Write the structure tokens for this entry.
Amino acid sequence: MQFIFPGILGMTILFNSIFSSISIIWDKEFGLMKEILVAPISRFSIVIGKALSGTIISVIQAAMILLFFPFLGIKLSILSIPYTIAICFLLAFCISALGIILAAFFESMESFSAIMNFIVMPMFFLSGAMYPVKDLPDILRWITKVNPLTFGVDALKHSIFRNAIIADFPLIVDLSVLIISSIVFVAAAGFFFEKRK
């Protein structure tokens, strides 16, 4: 239970955050995106706004899951709760920005939904949410190291249980990867939106 629960939180954040970018496809289909893109504001502010909206929804749902901790026999210290929420926020923002990058290349709901299944499920199963990264074969272990969800789930293991034994990476590595990935994803999403006519 201790090992799986951070993975459940990570799964909740992954699905909610990446699918929040469906609103961009919706805006494209109904012509709202054209009006947004001609507004006299930076494209990066659009990306950050969309990412924050997906982040807030994901963090609220993750916080609701945290309410079930006592019923599962998992004890959380008072300090662990805001710490865990902060990591959920960082992970959700990172994944939301990734979803925005993907949404920039699609024009319809059908095409976006189809490709999401090929991205979301491998991200989840290769994140260390279900089994330790160190127990994977070498090739899969390398793939997990380019998956930002891996480091988000690992950071949640640190924050929830304060137990480095079940974690695969040092906490400072987890946080650094999430922060750097968020910056890169926002920059890339802003760049792709800048290229749109």
Observations:
- The chain has a mean pLDDT of 82.
- The chain has one domain: 4-194.
